[in-house]
Write a structure and sequence with these properties.
single chain; alpha/beta; 8-stranded parallel sheet; 7-stranded mixed sheet; 30% helix; binds N-(aminocarbonyl)-beta-alanine; binds zinc ion
């Protein structure tokens, strides 16, 4: 099967060039200027990309599909979630398999492999949440590298659920240091937060905005500092997930300036939403955007700080932390966000975004002049691939890479609303946002799966990816 993508501008993290791409079966086999080849003779199909960008399929390294959480389940399955990702130009996700207390790491991994198997529209890998750190699970962290799991998420938040104490965290970091794997940290001081939550509820402060008020920036930056210090002591690479507080990013920058293998991601919702505009609103609507770390107060200046950190390289990745729960009760999923009506501590944490990420980052990042086209590709595809051992198979347009390709039309335009999204969810965080640019063709390993906005792939097209060690290390 030979496909020629013709007349577009190839945009990678390193540069842009007007050139054609030849895809054979699942891979990119040649790149050349129009006029320097005659590939169309004998091609099975030709995709006209004149006036469009040809970019690598986007990679979202932080999704949660079918996750049991907050007394319910994330409403997107691997099938609906990966299909909606494809609509938005994402061709690889790395989700989180979970080892819960009393279970082995292997059991957790097998459970998640079974959920995904045969259901994904795009390629997928797994990080492992190690929720029960003990002698056995430390050994399993080493063994599971052979299955392509090279990163492990730990929680300083959620006491009694996924929380690990500093001793457990440090042991896991020592194990990662021995194996060359990466620790991913949910960095919030969950113990202090639990005190603040209890006190707030006792005072009758139960609206969604108290979710943010009981998780002030220092509960994030203290945990970021502690995580970085423990990782430095153990000698393992560390990646801080879903960073929302500027004080946390300052800690990360200091560690990087010291030469530490320390990295961080933020998510589009922290760059666009605020308590003032989206959470402290009449009724219960603010619950839609309750997540952890929390959406912060606009007046505290976190958003501009995060944007600048992305532009200058102090943050390396934009992921979504996609974890969606229906706002209104759903026939199949039942009561989700509304579980927390009258008590914000019962609102399931998380929001959707896997479909919107590439577009909103293009709009607010590139169109609004915060960074270049190349940095956009870097943040959404190339750095995620390098960070989690997928490069150059994924994350770039190069000879030998998988043909995961998005033809992106910068002249397309639309407005986000519930009718423009495709996941199993009843709202988007970007409702009413006017977008320029959109993926028009999405190719996953040489197969067109989105054509003119229509999904033309099949469930099960996506394959499990065994990942290598991080390629971002210094
Ligand atoms: O609110 C969030 N982030 N929900 C998903 C679970 C997590 O901590 O990543
Ligand atoms: Zn988390
Ligand atoms: Zn998450």
């Amino acid at each position: 099967m030979r496909t020629v993508i013709k007349g577009g501008t190839i945009v990678t993290a390193d540069g842009s060039e007007l050139a054609d791409v030849l895809v054979e079966d699942e891979s990119i086999v040649a790149i050349a200027a129009s006029g320097e080849h005659s590939w169309e003779e004998g091609a099975d199909s030709v995709i006209d990309a004149v006036g469009k960008y040809i970019i690598p399929g986007a990679i979202d390294v932080h999704t949660h599909f079918e996750l049991p959480f907050g007394g319910t389940f994330v409403s997107d399955s691997f099938e609906s979630g990966t299909r909606s990702a494809a609509h938005g130009g994402t061709t690889t996700i790395v989700d989180f398999a979970v080892q819960v207390k009393g279970e082995t790491v292997r059991e957790g991994f097998d459970n998640w492999m079974a959920k995904a198997d045969g259901n994904c529209a795009i390629d997928y890998g797994f990080h492992m949440i190690v929720g029960d750190i003990n002698e056995g699970s430390l050994k399993e962290m080493e063994a599971i590298v052979d299955d392509g799991v090279t990163s492990f998420k730990l929680f300083m938040a959620y006491p009694g659920v996924l929380y690990s104490d500093d001793g457990e965290i440090f042991r896991a970091m020592q194990q990662a240091s021995r194996d060359g794997t990466t620790i991913m940290m949910h960095a919030e001081n969950g113990i202090a937060i639990d005190v603040l939550r209890e006190q707030a509820v006792a005072r009758g402060e139960t609206d969604p905005k108290y979710h943010t008020i009981t998780r002030p920036p220092k509960t994030e930056s203290e945990a970021v500092h502690r995580a970085l210090t423990l990782a430095e002591l153990a000698g393992c690479p560390i990646y801080i997930v879903h960073m929302s507080a500027k004080e946390g990013v300052m800690e990360l920058t200091k560690a990087r300036d010291r030469g530490q293998n320390a990295f961080g991601e933020t998510c589009p919702h922290y760059l666009h939403l605020s308590v003032e505009d989206d959470i402290d609103v009449p009724g219960f609507e603010g619950a839609k955007y309750v997540c952890s770390t929390p959406i912060r107060f606009r007046e505290e200046g976190h958003q501009e700080y995060l944007w600048n950190a992305l532009a200058r390289g102090d943050l390396q990745v934009v992921s979504t932390d996609h974890a969606c729960f229906f706002y209104d009760d759903d026939e199949t999923m039942g009561r989700q966000k509304r579980l927390g009506e009258g008590n914000f501590t019962l609102i399931p944490n998380g929001l959707p975004g896997v479909e919107e990420r590439l577009n909103v980052m293009y709009q607010s990042g590139v169109v609004e002049g915060r960074f270049s086209l190349n940095r956009w590709v870097d943040l959404c595809a190339t750095s995620p691939a390098k960070m989690f051992g997928l490069y150059p198979k994924k994350g770039t347009i190069a000879v030998g890479s998988d043909a995961d390709i998005v033809v992106f039309d910068p002249n397309a335009s639309f407005t986000y609303g519930t009718d423009t999204i495709h996941g199993n969810i009843d709202y988007t965080a970007y409702d009413g946002m006017e977008i320029s640019g959109s993926p028009v063709v999405v190719m996953s390993r040489g197969k067109v799966i989105i054509d003119g906005g229509r999904y033309v792939g099949s469930k099960g097209d996506g394959r499990y990816l065994k990942r290598g060690l991080s390629q971002m290390l210094i």
